[in-house]
Amino acid sequence: MEWLKRNQITVGAGLVILVAAYVFYAVNSNVATSMFSGAWFFAVPLVLGALTGVVGERSGVVNIGIEGQMLVAAFAAFFSAAATGSLVVGVLVGMLAGIAMGAFLALTTVKGLMDQIIAGVVINIVATGLTSFFYRPGKVLSANMPQWEVPLLSKIPLIGDVFFQSGPIALFALVSVPVVHFALFRTRWGLRTRSIGEYPSAADTAGIDVIRMRLVNVTIGGIFAGAAGAYLSMEATGGFERGMTAGRGFLALAILIFGGWRPLRVFAAALFFGFTNALASQLQGVISIPQQFITLLPYLLTLIVLAVAAGRVRAPAAVGQPFVKGEGS
Q: Residue 238 pLDDT more than 90?
């Protein structure tokens, strides 16, 4: 009951949207399923990228480099899968690439005390340069990523078609949201993570190793960015192109802010932006507006939403602030 009181607006909005979705489904089931499937298709890398930001920024480390992490992971996943003929190897290598980039960010900012914004920008620049330089056209995957149906859940009208008849990485994203939310707000790890992102000096006084925990969290958070990259090159398209992340990492940062650094709200925000993208796709050819303006719609809404949400959400108090043991923070 306390949870419902704290989140009554969010729960109410969710119920209204759910009812509206099923009304839409009742009117035209094919169009509704297509649009919501398209929304989830677009939202998957945003959810995973935003979870990377949640874990890092709740620990006190700003991650501007999500775009670069996703791009390197997409490159590593696709070309390792093409070279070995194994989709499993490709996904694992993609996740490892995300972890490696997360480790770089953690070491340079937490240990090296490098400015966190600059470190993230470096990751993005290096990722763009390396993936463009080593890119080789003509590679193909030995097989397409499988589509899994979750027993019972896949039979639910609309929801089952959209969420529970997906590829393994999309299902991983769906499971990760409640798992990270539970871990963040219901476990000792989550309490310590939030404490080092809010009051690192107090956490240090209480015996928590702030530096070690930030290092581990930012590094492990790279798993989600790695999965997002693998999704783009292996599950969503089955190929790699230069700059294929196309700003999704930055959009994930916007979703992170809009969602108030809370996984469930981040998930809802990602679906919202996914739906705007699906709506823009549906509008192409229907109304006499240049395609460029329709494609711009999701990003225009991003700016509007950020402008509205900026004064309504509060970032972790110590995010972006380096921690030096023994000094106030």
A: no
